[in-house]
Specification:
heterodimer; A: 279 residues; Rossmann fold; seven-stranded antiparallel β-sheet; 4 helices; B: 298 residues; alpha/beta; TIM Barrel
């Protein structure tokens, strides 16, 4: 049920390269769910939790975001919590082994799951070493696999690609396959265009994965939050779905087949209409 | 009570002259947790076409300052499925439903209008035209909706096309006019490069409170010259804005995408309109040499 609440901004602090906001809220969003906040712009903005506690939640916004100029104590009008978040209970038994996969920019949205199971493995990918957080910023219980696209540290990415690697660098794909075989549940937060390849990988590693074995967060513009504006439609194998109400967490296997081709066309192909580079 | 289709055999009476604009409110049930639908005059659905349409690819929204552009491609599952999925909701609603039809091929418009006639809860159609539609084609589309269907038809005019389309469409059988669809606009959405050039642009429907003065301009120019009720639409951001439109002679108002930020706006406008009876107002004409009739009575 969509509800309107007034949150109170408790703290704003830099967490390079971004900023962290903490909002006190009566009903807080769980991992993968979101609230739509009125931060002064013409459209509400979705805020996903990076930390959830009893009083509220923390979220991360880019440097220079208008919310970083708000003073602590400011009221913030929010709609929500909205959407379907990560469903770890859907596995059907107590979860022992959880695998998290994230691009570094989407890492905060998996942070509430760092202690969701006794054994949690995290694969985080960045373009280069400088964009990765220091290992000391992760809980020591987390089994961490760092991936860079240029091989400057950790394994060589992209995570879904195979092929030869330069001397002294190891591709991450064999390691990822091992982790996928080990895990009882996988949660992914990355660019939606990568989901078809990841879904194929899961299908290769796991024989007929059960529903919600692998779950993927889709972060797109969601101005209304109730499925009215049609801006957040994503193509899945079940047809078009609203990320705001049917997601934003979907079964990763929904991004297979025809939907995969459509997702990839929407990224690299000529867009419908005229929303493309004019200059 | 106002009558939006006085020339139609059934008419289209509304208790309150306030409704959401097409493309902003879904098919009637999306906002049921946040908006008390019973205080509204009607609900205008998202655009519907005879056949299903998928969403536009690429970027769908761009924001700059206080305004934004939207390009969705008007995705919808097709009129048959919309009736199947939303028909029960419309039946239970206490307010009339006006289905917004996309003006495509006249034959398709006619078939869709025919399928919607007799659907319980649906009391009218609103026909949305392409920005570049020709006069003859627009009249053919409207005639198809009027002749094949049995419901009052409201024509929603593209921005800036009142002068050439309003008269012919009224003659072709439009029961009311919505002034207007959002204008088309282009916004830079990419980051500014080292040379100062913007890498990407986005074209779409423009929304924002800045549209409101344009809506007033169009209303003041045209409302007295048209023989059918006029619904004001564009940039209405407060109960005062809505009352101003009614004062200028609009029969009803539509709240556009500004309700996404403040869903309570619809209810606030509806309650304010019910409370206040707008007075007859004279417009202070800033151009005294302009010979156009600027004195408008509601």
């Amino acid at each position: 049920m969509a509800r309107r609440q007034t949150a109170t901004l408790r703290a704003v602090r830099p967490v390079p390269p971004a900023w962290e906001l903490h909002l006190d809220l009566e009903v807080v969003p769980q991992a993968g769910c979101y609230v739509l906040a009125d931060l002064g712009g013409p459209l509400r903005e979705p805020l996903f939790p990076s930390v959830v506690d009893g009083d509220g939640f923390s979220t991360v916004v880019p440097r220079g975001h208008p919310a970083t100029r708000l003073l602590p104590g400011s009221p913030v009008d929010v709609l929500g919590p909205l959407g379907h978040g990560f469903r770890l209970a859907a596995i059907g038994h107590a979860l022992d082994r959880l695998l998290l996969i994230a691009e570094v920019d989407d890492l905060p949205w998996l942070q509430p799951l760092y202690q969701a199971a006794p054994s949690v493995a995290l694969v985080v990918e960045a373009t280069t070493r400088l964009r990765l957080p220091a290992p000391s910023r992760f809980p020591p219980t987390l089994e961490l696999t760092m991936v860079t696209r240029d091989g400057s540290t950790g394994y060589l990415g992209p995570i879904e690609e195979d092929g030869p690697a330069p001397a002294g660098v190891v591709r991450v794909l064999p390691r990822l396959r091992e982790l996928m075989a080990w895990a009882e549940c996988i949660c992914v937060a990355a660019d939606v265009v990568r989901y078809p390849a990841l879904a194929r990988l899961v299908k290769d590693v796991r024989y007929l994965p059960q529903a919600d074995f692998a779950q993927a967060l889709v972060r797109v513009s969601m101005p209304c939050g109730v499925g009215a504006c049609d801006i957040c439609r994503v193509t899945t194998r079940h047809g078009e779905r609203h990320a705001c109400v049917d997601g934003p967490v979907f079964d990763l296997m929904d991004f297979t087949g025809e939907s995969a081709r459509r997702v990839s066309r929407s990224r690299g192909g000529r867009p419908h209409g005229v929303n493309e580079a004019i200059a | 009570m106002i009558e939006l289709a006085p020339r139609h055999k059934y008419g289209l009476p509304l208790m309150v002259p306030v409704m959401p604009a097409s493309g902003t409110f879904g098919y009637g049930h999306a906002y049921h947790d946040l908006v008390d639908l019973s205080v509204l005059g009607a609900i205008v659905t998202n655009p519907v076409s005879l056949k299903a349409r998928t969403a536009a690819r690429g970027r769908r929204v761009g924001v700059r300052g206080d305004h934004f552009v939207v390009h969705t491609g008007w995705p919808n599952p097709g009129v048959r499925r919309v009736i199947r999925e939303s028909g029960r909701v419309w039946e239970r609603l206490t307010v009339p439903v006006i289905v917004h039809l996309l003006a495509t091929q006249p034959a398709s418009v006619g078939r869709a209008a025919g399928m919607l006639s007799g659907v319980r809860g649906v009391r009218g159609l609103e026909l949305g035209f392409a920005a570049t539609v020709g006069i003859e084609r627009a009249c053919a589309q409207l005639s198809a909706a009027v002749e094949e269907g049995d419901l009052p038809v409201i024509a929603k005019l593209p921005f800036g096309r009142v002068a050439d389309l309003a008269g012919p469409l009224v003659d072709a059988g439009a029961d009311a006019l919505t002034l207007m669809s959002p204008p088309r606009a282009v916004l830079p959405v990419g980051e500014v490069g080292p040379g100062g050039s913007v890498a990407r642009f986005m074209r779409g429907r423009l929304y924002g409170a800045a549209l409101f003065p344009m809506t007033l301009h169009i209303l003041s120019q045209w409302v007295g010259k048209l023989d059918v009720p006029v619904i004001a639409c564009g940039g209405i951001a407060s109960p005062d804005d809505a009352l101003t439109c009614l004062t200028l002679g609009a029969a009803a108002v539509q709240i556009d995408a500004l309700l996404w930020r403040d869903p309570g706006l619809l209810e606030a406008v509806a309650r304010a309109v019910v409370r206040v009876q707008p007075p007859v107002t004279e417009i202070d004409d800033a151009q005294p040499h302009d010979t156009e009739d600027m004195e408008v009575a509601p």
